[in-house]
Amino acid sequence: MSVPHPVEPWRIKMVEPLRPTTRAERGDALRAAGYNISLLRSEDVLIDLYTDSGTNAMSDRQWSALLAGDEAYAGARSFYRLRDAVRAYYGYEHVIPVHQGRGAENLLSRCLIRPGDHVPGNMYFTTTRAHQELNGGTFHDVIRDEAHDPSCEHPFKGDVDIAKLERLIADVGADRIPYLSLAATVNMAGGQPISMAGLAAVRDLTRRHGIPVILDAARAVENAWFIKQREPGWGDRTIADILRAMCDLTDGATMSAKKDSYANIGGWLGVRDPELAERARELVVLYEGLHTYGGMAGRDMEAVARGIAESVEEPNIRARVGQVAYLGGRLADAGVPIVRPVGGHAVCVDAAAILPHLPRAEFPAQTLAAVLYLDSGVRAAERGAVSAGRDPATGRDRFPRLELVRLTVPRRVYTQSHLDLVADSMIRVHEHRTEITAGLAFTHEPSTLRFFQARFTPTAEIPLLT
To answer: N or C: which end of the chain has fewer CB within 10 A?
Structure first.
């Protein structure tokens, strides 16, 4: 599976120093953070692969756009540049800016979900499901079964299983389904894409039942790249064309501009329905800011507008996905179990396969991420039982089939030598996996999105790898 590292379509103009740490320093930092990688201070992290959200490097064109920001409270010209960029590349008529993607999720959930509603989706995402549940909805996973199998090589593991969706509609009634939540790509499945054919089938079914389709568009450009590479009939189309074709099959989208648009902050809700747009504008004033800034400064809206145009430039997306594929290839060649095929934004390591001797209740992925940090100073993200949280009805831990450590590659940030350091460390941890004889247990567990601020203690001493 060896993959050559791509030639970066950019050169470095500014650098930020990194501070190497000793193993003893990392041990102290991890204990102070309660063995939660989310609580580590960034200055104690050498290579930060916790997320690609807001951690990207902006271009010189984006930095220059900041200076054109109109900071007027109402009617800033920067809002209209953002609105026009969304309309041009994503096609949604009504654009409501928000501070980041979860702001759009909040607005959408408050507008559409009523207690007792059911929201189908192609695998949950943490903040998305939390907003749905807080507004009285129940999430239903209708993704195809292959998405839950890390070793399956299906090219579009993010697709909705139409039969599952049909059964849900028959069971609860279309009138209790406020919308279908559709991610492209699917974060919790390892960045797996949806196909255009699958999206068209979803659109046909939902149109017959009057169910809106809302796209999580944070990484839709990456999804467009996979359609271009893998789906017959799309290889000659531009990324911009494919992105627009995807959005044309949906009724709206939530967007975290901290992903595909290269920005450090920002997002938007885009919809076609003018009545829904008006309700969202009323709520955005309460929760974000006026409808022409929505929690963003004018300079940030300028950077996002510029980033939208850059995101569909094929050299950028080719190099971005290529870096992730390179890291995945190095791990796969060394026998480290990863989610296949490699996704667009991250390489996801199968912690359950690496640590099968640890009970799921001792959180193998959280444990593996802690040991990886101890080994090298690399911060990854847990995407397993800790992230899944507890079932609100039973109070029991959810144990998803996927128990993953996510190595998320920020855009235009790290070089090949950085990724080689990550690969070497993960391979070394994998080679010493039998020495990891204990997992983690909660000492503090928040009720919502617990993975951000939870604290743990080892169930026994976690050895520091040599």
So the answer is: C
Q: Give the least confident one: 69-83, 291-305, 446-460.
A: 446-460
| Active-site residue flag, 396 | no
pLDDT of residue 463: 59
26 catalytic? Reply is no
Catalytic, 73? Answer yes
Tens-place pLDDT, residues 322-352 = 999 999 999 999 999 999 999 999 999 999 9
Residue pair 196/234 in contact (Cβ under 8 Å)? The answer is: yes
Active-site residue, from 157, 258, 259, 450:
259
| Alpha helix ranges (H) inside 217-266 | 220-230, 239-248
Residue whose structure tokens are 């919790």: 188
Is 157 in the active site? no
Average pLDDT score over residue span 384-409: 94
Q: What pTM was estimated for this model as a whole?
A: 0.94
pLDDT band at 308 (very low <50, low <70, confident <90, very high): very high
| Domain ranges across the chain | 23-52+314-458, 61-311
Known active-site residue 79: no
C-beta separation of 66 from 303 below 8 A: yes
Q: H helices of 16-93, where?
A: 23-32, 60-66, 77-89
For residue 165, which phi and psi values (nearest 5 degrees)? -65, -40
pLDDT higher than threshold 80 for residue 466: no
Which residue from 331, 457, 347 is spatially nearest to 1, judged by alpha carbons? 331
Q: What is the 3-state secondary structure (H, E, C) of 338-384?
A: ECCCCCCCEEEEEHHHHCCCCCHHHCHHHHHHHHHHHHHCEECEEEC
Q: Is 442 among the residues known to form the active site?
A: no
Q: Is the pLDDT of residue 232 over 70?
A: yes
| CATH code of domain 23-52+314-458 | 3.90.1150.10
The yes/no answer on whether domain 61-311 falls in CATH 2.30.110.10 is no
Q: Which of 50, 89, 124, 125 is catalytic?
A: 125
pLDDT tens track for 76-132: 999 999 999 999 999 999 999 999 999 999 999 999 999 999 999 999 888 899 999
Residue from 316, 326, 188, 194 nearest 260 by CA: 316
User: Cβ of 394: how many Cβ atoms within 10 Å?
Assistant: 8
Active-site residue among 299, 383, 411, 450?
Answer: 383
Query: Which is the catalytic residue, given 21, 51, 55, 126?
Result: 126
d(CA 164, CA 455): 37
